[in-house]
Amino acid sequence: MKEFEDIVFTAYLILLIIISTFIIGRFLYFYRTRNARVKIKYETKPFQYLGYISVVMLPLFILGTINYIFILQKGNLFAPYWAKFLLLALLLLLFLTELYYIFYPQPKKLNRAMKIIFLIPLSVLAFLFNQTYLKAIKHPDVASSVIIELPFEGTWIASGAGGSGLTNHHDRIESQKYAIDIVKFGDNCRIFENEGIKNEDSYTFGARIISPVNGKVVFALDSLPDIKITDREKLAGNHIIVQFQDTLFVALAHLKQNSIKVKIGDFVETGDELAQVGNSGNTDFPHLHIHVQDSESYNIESTKTYPVRFKVFSRMRYIFWTKQTNQFLLSNDIVKSN
Questions:
Q1: pTM of this prediction?
Q2: CA 143, CA 52: separation in Å to the nearest integer?
């Protein structure tokens, strides 16, 4: 995993340098041409309107860019907090400075032509980014969702979640459409230590899993080794299924070998310890897989899954924590129990 972290870090570094260079360059150019600039109300009418269109498109572009990077880019799972914070700060500075420049244009043919040239891709990207984001956040409403508690303690980040394939790789499998994959943060706000190669390097491996519902254990398997298994009968690896309503069952998969603390027939309450996260089944790295289904058996061919929301928790989608009630997760959402 260290390789992926390095790639994301490098990508962020390049992006931050590009934005910083652009802001500095634009400021120096504006400063040199300040005496040749006028207030937008003194521009010719067509270019006044062009400026007003830019005022609308610019924040849409910035907002779309933020959502694209923070939510739609799966690599953001490995991005350090300081890089995300600095990116948001630079994008805010870019927005404020460009907004100011728009209201003080330089009424020359070349500058007017450049405005038109930049406005076209700006508008296209703003439309595409925001249209994609609106598709990504579509999720069944509360009345159509199953509400459960978080199945863990501490701070975790979703590596795959949401109601569409834009943020959730489970979407391609109908029986797991609303499933969630989630991994644990360590004290250093990383998901692994050392090189992230061994299971033990992952902060998720061995993390305690608690019951998200009151119910009855109807299935439990923990004899499989903590290695990747592609056998279709063993894709879930070690897993537990808890029935909490007549036709509702919560499945917790990819558990650690010999870590399950309950057995079939046991009744559990919300918060009871169930097992530890492992790396068994069809996994690339240790993570917890959770979904709610209509069957007591884990069968990707025939089971139906339901959209999941969590009762009360704190979420960081960008760089600030907010309290959430009965909300769903998207990829890269950082969550913790209140």
A1: 0.91
A2: 41
